[in-house]
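Why do we bother with a discrete structure alphabet at all? Because it lets us treat a fold like text: something you can write down, compare, and reason about line by line. To make this less abstract, here is a complete entry for Efflux transporter, outer membrane factor (OMF) lipoprotein, NodT family. Read it the way you would read a sentence in a foreign language you are learning: slowly, and without expecting to understand everything at once.
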Amino acid sequence: MFKRVVSTCVGVTGLLFLVSACTPTLINRQANTATPARYSNAQAQDTTNSATIQWQAYFTDPYLNALIDTALHNNQELNITLQEIQISQNEVRIRKGEYLPFVGLRGAAGVEKVGRYTRPGALEATTDIQPGTEMPDPLPDYMLEAYATWEVDIWHKLRNARKSAAQRYLSSVEGKNFMVTNLIAEIANSYYELLALDNQLAIVKQNIEIQSNALEIVRMQKQATRVTELAVRRFEAQVLHTRSLQYDIQQQIVETENRINFLVGRYPQPIARNSEAFIDLLPDTIHAGIPSQLLANRPDIRQAELELAASKLDVQVARANFYPSLDISAAVGVQAFDPTVLITAPESILYGLAGDLIAPLINRNAIKATYNSANARQMQAVYDYERTILNAYIEVANQLANIDNLQKSYEAKSQEVQALTQSITISNNLFRSARADYMEVLLTQRDALESKFELIETKRQQMNALVNVYQALGGGWR
């Protein structure tokens, strides 16, 4: 059943020379991983890095930590990524099995009828098993054998394919880590946004009360003919405008709560939180370390590095397709037309051993195209790796500058709020004594409300910057 065949069209030495001569030239470029010695807006060069702090210690709010912990277990997108890791791990096992011998068992039974007036039929008219006895017609055939096939990995094509799959498995793990970092940052930013909205809602309600009291005063003054109906209407419009802001903020609170609920993988429900201490939160001191630490701390950079390593191995796999491949196959078993003599030895025993040395000669354009595509993907991976490093550096630099500027902005906003809050009392007193126009009171109240809103917004931006720099430095996935 098996024949021993070695297929070669030219001598092996000449064949290898021919193949090597026709292999396209590899375009190779080393990735530039050099980073500046320090961040442009850093005060000093220090290797202390906040990215090494675990998120449980970085975020001190117990309500926020509970949300993050729930999300790391229930978030659907993260769980989908975990299944992608499992798929990548199985791909490694598949590739590993390809360069090992494949062994199997095979059994077969059949029957064949050939025409008597043909050469096969004439030769089978008699059999020498028992002289004078005809070959059974139709002819049964029973066979049981063990067989093995093996592609000898001469050029490490299969091993490189397995190594490439292993690199992509590790890349998928880093992709999961990057997703964890982003998920934690998104929850934290949404949580601080929720706290800010709560404080803005409280400010609006306070202003509604203040404006309502001012409206009652204006109405009494109208009755005393000290002001006109126009003043009353303007104060009423101011109260109604502030109430409309209340409803807008309440809707934003609902949407923000539901966004957090979606991230933690549950249906809408109230988010437990402590909003009263939000305005007093103080951003912790950030230690940015040195830029070269990003290569080890940022999961997306390590993911790009592993993708680059995998793409280089893919080029080696594609290059090996130009070289001859050696396939070895073997089988041993029994075969007979009569099942009663199937285990008769040595007459019913069959065995075979074959080796095939095959080199591509005609369909080389497809192999060249595959090789060129692998080479181009390698260049893409190089540029992507460099871009990821550059993007990480810029993200950190932006957030460090943002933290510094927001601190100065918050101090100025605090002084503005204090001044405008005092001006409300002053304007009301002047208005009661007819020494100020009602428009001054309205404008003062409006400016004070806007300044308080801006102060809360600046505080939210401060807390978001604290989250974003932690994310940019590569923290959160540990």
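What the structure line is telling us, in plain words: The radius of gyration is 39 Å. The chain has two domains: 1-23+100-114+134-152+325-358, 31-97+166-322+363-473.
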